[in-house]
Specification:
42% of the residues lie in helices and 9% in strands. It has 91 residues and is mostly helical. Strands 1-2 form a two-stranded parallel sheet. The radius of gyration is 16 Å and the shape is elongated. It starts with 16 loop residues before the first helix and ends in a 14-residue tail after the last strand.
């Protein structure tokens, strides 16, 4: 039987290592698709860039390590970035 599940930030704080480990131990998925990230409006990303990179790295490290510890067969990690055309110099 195959199933798909996800959790909201209110249901599971991915920045908390112990919560991520417990979740993956309980659910025992074969595959993890990591597309989670903290994101805000452009102004907040520009104003607080270190906060966003720190939080996103916590999420990534917690999930990848807990997936390994839990025996996940495959962990797929999607990464993306935003480019802001209005902030780029004209050509």
């Amino acid at each position: 039987m195959q199933s798909f599940f996800c959790r909201t930030v209110d249901e599971l704080d991915l920045t908390k290592q112990s919560l991520v480990e417990s979740f993956l131990q309980q659910e025992k998925p074969d595959y993890v698709f990591l597309a989670a990230a903290q994101s805000r409006r452009i102004h907040a990303n520009i104003t607080y860039p270190a906060d966003f990179i720190y939080s996103n790295l916590q999420i990534q490290i917690n999930i990848i390590h807990a997936a390994y510890q839990s025996g996940v067969k495959n962990c797929v990690f999607w990464a993306a970035h935003a480019s802001i055309q209005s902030l780029l110099p004209s050509r």
